[in-house]
Amino acid sequence: MxxxxxxxxATALLIGGxxxxxxxxxxxxxxxxxxxxxxxxxxxPGGAWLWNDFVLPMMRRRNGS
Length: 65
Known about the structure:
Layout: H1 2-27, H2 33-63
Helix pairs in contact: 1-2
């Protein structure tokens, strides 16, 4: 159950950051620096969380290390 909650939270951070970044870069009339920083604060930890908890263990199992 911990892995499911962790995956949902990390994915929400990643998708939320990507959406905010997309909205600021492609949809907004005026780009706000604070919104870009918020997107980075959401995107980077969400991606790192997913990478460290889910991608790396799968890669290690596949390679046998």
